[in-house]
Structure prediction request, 306 residues.
Amino acid sequence: MELPEFDQKSFRSALGRFATGVAIITARGVDGRPVGVTANSFNSVSLDPPLVLWSLARTSSSLKAYEGAEEFAVHILGINQEHLSNRFATKGIDKFEGMDVGHAGVPLLDSCAARFRCRKVQRHDVGDHVLYIGEVIDFETCDGAPLLYVQGRYGEARRREAAGLSYDLEAARLGKDAILNLFSHAYVRILARVRAELDLLGLQQSASIILAAVAEGITEIDAVQQFSFDRDYHFSAEEQEMLIGQGLIGIEKGNVRLSPKGERAYRDLLAAMKRVEEDLVGGFTDGELSDVRHFLASVGNSDGDL
Ligand SMILES: Cc1cc2nc3c(=O)[nH]c(=O)nc-3n(C[C@H](O)[C@H](O)[C@H](O)COP(=O)(O)O)c2cc1C
Prediction:
């Protein structure tokens, strides 16, 4: 049979894209010595009967012990057990040093995310590995998240369904540094400050726009309406009545004029906006402000679509 020639490194790297948990699989050799290896080849096979599998490299120094053992135990590691994973993946050390796993029966490790005690029911020589299938005779689970292994690195799971979304929200959302986010936050804060100043003057935002229009020489009602419309406000009949009632404007022959009270209100308004502007730019260098002005002006004045 023609075997495809693989570049081993890229083959491993492609396999490593399959995310797994991390297990330590223990057994006791016929000589009574405990053995254990870190394995991510563990998988479930059948629910009824309850079967699991894993495969062991033929190069493992523990192969003989697993071959002779009738049982093995699968310990699914928790996120804080990376050190155990590394320990049980290291050749030539006493992997059980400092642990009390007794002298008989399958060695059991404490406090892992889940543990399955299995009776070895099948073994198969498969390539450079031996595949073991075990029937689960007992199992237990603990609270706490499991440790993951993907692309040669440890990781931990982040649930997506918690947000009720079927896509990766983190990848989809704009970052905090996005201009759109920065601009929206800044806009909301500046607007709140402007509104606070208007409150102090007893003016509504719509009134301030009308005062501005008239003070700038736009007096015909139609033109004032257009001016406020361009700024997202509607200079309605009620609005006119209200401003007249407040003594800020008068209307004569289709023209709006500011009353002396209206003129004073507009002067106070301009002074207040000056204060807001000073507070806003205070603390920034001329260079920084020049960049911001340039950016905002080019966005605001661009003729075409953004
Ligand atoms: C995350 C991870 C997963 C591993 N999965 C397996 C596996 O499924 N099968 C295997 O034979 N070795 C696997 N290994 C390597 C063995 O753990 C390692 O070769 C073995 O413990 C060496 O010790 P030994 O000669 O005493 O068996 C894995 C190692 C790591 C770090």
